[in-house]
Each structure stands twice: as C-alpha cells, then as structure tokens.
C-alpha cells in the first residue's frame, strides 16, 4: 500500500488517481482559507514553484473540521486560492481528515506518520490542548496546514505539524535531492 493507491476528488468533482504522481515527491496538506495559518499558502506556492521542476508537487485538501475555518464551497475555495495567493498547485475538493468520515488517504497518512505534537509547537499546542484535548497523543490531524512529505514511490517520509513552515520544509526537501 502507498499514497499512489488512493483516489481523490477534484474541486470540479472529477476523480483523480494519485498514481499519476508516481515518481514525484509530494507535499500533502490540509488547508483552510480563514485560519491564522492561511498565509502559509504563500509559502506553499513559493515552495511549489521553486521545486516543481526538481520533482516536488504540493497538493492541498481543504478541510472545515477545525473551527469552521473552511466554510466555502469548492468553487469559492478555488477562487480564494487563485485570487488571494495565485495558487497553481492542485487544491482538491473539501474533505474530512479526522473522524468516521475521514478520507481514506488521510487515514493512511495518519497511520504512516502519527506525528509528534507537543509543547514545542507553542501557541498551537496550547490552543489544541484547550479546544481539542482528546486529540493530544493521538494520530489525529491537530489543525489546518498539517503537511506530509511523500517520496516518489508513494511512501510517507515525514509529518510536519502546522507550525512547521513551508520555508522549513524547503531546506529538508533540498537535503533529499
């Protein structure tokens, strides 16, 4: 089993098989347009543009499970990404990343890289500890902009918690190349 075994739904409602990305590094992230971390779209887009010719593809998955911070329709989300951040990487249809309705891709990602979310994540740890204490110590996605780095064979290499910036990931990706 690998990330390449999953299908996802585009914002337009079409089905896409992630096997199309075989041979490419992926950075998969759950995104939201009304989050305190939404400005990470800018860094994700810069990372994508700087590294797409070096084999890195960013994939965004909108999710409204954290404070209702992605309330829009798929079309509204696409407009926001395009007009606000000039996003050129794929932003798919809205999904759940936790709970019974979690997308199978995210169940797989969470199982492969359960994360290490603790006090070193500062303000976000305190926020999650107060608002979602049941998530601490589990493989659940803690908040928007959790990122997973996947190798060209579809193996999950690492989970980055939301406070890890795209700029930090750029250095790690450069070391892989």
TrEMBL record:
Q: Which GO terms describe its molecular function?
A: peroxidase activity
Under the heading Pfam families, the entry gives: GSHPx
Oxidoreductase as UniProt keyword: yes
- State what protein this is by name: Glutathione peroxidase
Task: Say which family it is in.
Answer: Belongs to the glutathione peroxidase family.
Entry's transmembrane regions: none
Q: Which UniProt keywords apply?
A: Oxidoreductase, Peroxidase
Show the InterPro entries listed in the entry.
Glutathione_peroxidase, GPX_CS, Thioredoxin-like_sf
């Amino acid at each position: 089993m690998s990330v390449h075994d999953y299908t996802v739904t585009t914002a337009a409602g079409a089905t896409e098989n992630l096997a199309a990305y075989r041979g490419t590094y992926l950075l998969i992230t759950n995104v939201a347009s009304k989050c305190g971390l939404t400005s990470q779209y800018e860094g994700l887009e810069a990372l994508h543009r700087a590294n797409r010719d070096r084999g890195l593809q960013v994939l965004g998955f909108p999710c409204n499970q954290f404070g209702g911070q992605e309330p829009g329709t798929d079309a509204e989300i696409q407009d926001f990404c395009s007009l606000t951040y000039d996003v050129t990487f794929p932003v798919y249809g809205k999904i759940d990343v936790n709970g019974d309705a979690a997308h199978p891709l995210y169940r797989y990602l969470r199982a492969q890289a359960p994360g290490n979310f603790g006090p070193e994540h500062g303000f976000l740890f305190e926020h999650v500890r107060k608002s979602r204490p049941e998530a601490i110590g589990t493989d659940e996605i803690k908040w928007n902009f959790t990122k997973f780095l996947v190798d060209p064979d579809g193996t999950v290499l690492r989970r980055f918690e939301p406070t890890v910036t795209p700029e930090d990931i750029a250095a790690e990706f450069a070391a892989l190349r």
